[in-house]
Design brief:
- The protein contains twelve helices and 22 strands.
- By secondary structure, the protein is of the alpha+beta class.
- The protein folds into three domains: 48 residues, Tumour Suppressor Smad4, CATH 2.60.200; 188 residues, 2-Layer Sandwich (Beta-Lactamase); 190 residues, 2-Layer Sandwich (Alpha-Beta Plaits), CATH 3.30.70.
- The strands form four sheets. Strands 15, 16, 17, 18, 19, 20, 21 and 22 form an eight-stranded mixed sheet that branches. The chain has a seven-stranded antiparallel sheet with strand order 8-12-13-14-9-10-11, with helices on both faces. It has a four-stranded antiparallel sheet with strand order 4-3-6-7, covered by helices on one side.
- Strand 16 and strand 17 form a beta hairpin.
- The radius of gyration is 34 Å and the shape is elongated.
- 40% of the residues are buried.
Amino acid sequence: MYDPTISRKHAELRLTDGGVEVKDVGSSNGTFLNGARVTDALAAENDVITFGKVAFRVKAVTAPPPRPQVVASLPFEFGGKPGGGTIVRQLPVKHSGGVPAIVVDRPSGTSHLKVTAPTLEERREKKLSLLLEISKELSRQQELDRLLDKVVDFTFQIMNVDRVSILLLEDKSGELVPRVSKGKTGSAAASKHVPQSIARKAVEERVAILSDNAAADERFKGKSILIQSVRSAMCTPLMGTDQQVLGILYVDNLTATHSFADEDLEFLIAFGSLAAVGIENSRRSERLQREALVLSNFQRYFSPNIAQVIAQQQDAGRLPSEKRAVVIFFSDIRGFTPMSETMSPEGIATLLTDYFTEMVEIVFENGGTLDKFIGDAIMALWGAPIAHEDDADRAMQSALDQLTALESLNAKWKEAGRPELGVGIGINFGEVFAGNIGSDRRLEYTVIGDAVNTASRLCRTAGPNEILISEPFYQRLKRPPTVEALDPIQVKGKSQKVPVYRVKR
């Protein structure tokens, strides 16, 4: 059986004289008996076994053992006195996956579920079938807003209620934010009609609540209940598989007290569990789509591992603009302009493609960022947007690897009768402005500043297959190569000349 909530090795079942032995074998989403999560239990006739979010009922066994109780179902009373404003049902809600609604044997009061059947067994089967159909339908909804609308629509279809609302918890603020709210006559403002006292209790205590006369309930003294004339209300927290509250599902009735039965609350919990699974799946799908989009954009400029880190960040796609110290790397082909005058356009394109492919791969292998191509030059960065302690050593290794790779390319090109290339490399370290720069139509992540100009000047000064580095960069190296000090060079915008080192290979 395929279902995303069922693990490849989920549980073991064994028929015995006393019933069906159920043993969870380390599943991700759990195994449940009558809504209670179990690792090893014995199921009896008419018990419900749930794997992930898929439920099955035991048709018949001999000598059924006592059933485990999900929760106590005694009415809650204040001060020992039954009153019109009591919480008649308050159930702890664990993580999603259980289906407690279908284990109710004798619903108290008149249920407002739109399920009709001549016998209790047939009613139980209808509710199970209804939940399975809802589960299938919700699993098809990948977009969160459409999923929430579907949950609200289903609630009206299966229950006689006046209003339905879904509020979700914001990750950053921890506040309950209304996402969708509807009444029988149209949309409703959830922020106004959902009593905050009920919502807070459901979230903070992780309990599902049935209040048969909310306006008289001593637990809920908020003005919103009186203003909205709430009579009967039910609320269940939407619990994720990691035990985190995702939000709440709230329904109420404005016209009559004692409107909901225990069975209604049990079903709302089960329905809320399915909704919670759908919300988690939708959020996971949206996150994966966002990460895929970011990866497709960023893998052109960043090494795959850095692109993956960026894609998984909360604000993926919006890199910060900031001042930061980075390594700036320039490489440039020597004598390319006169060489290109003797080559065909196709030959130039082929040569540059082979060269850039090899050089950029080396930048990525060493954890660098491709800033841009400037004609036949490459500009790369280390330290932005993600920094490492050994960024200078990574850049140095990239320069050495590029010259080694160029030797292999030249040997191959020489055999093919194609021209050989020489490359000059300049590397500097310093503070720059890093961020998205450009217009509304086209932005690119780059760095600007005096340190960039110095690196560019070092590159222009370098001879064929020569690496020139600055004093600040040399001081950052943890594994410095052998170098030779050259005469300082003058850089535009600087009053003093810049010390330069040539790397010996």
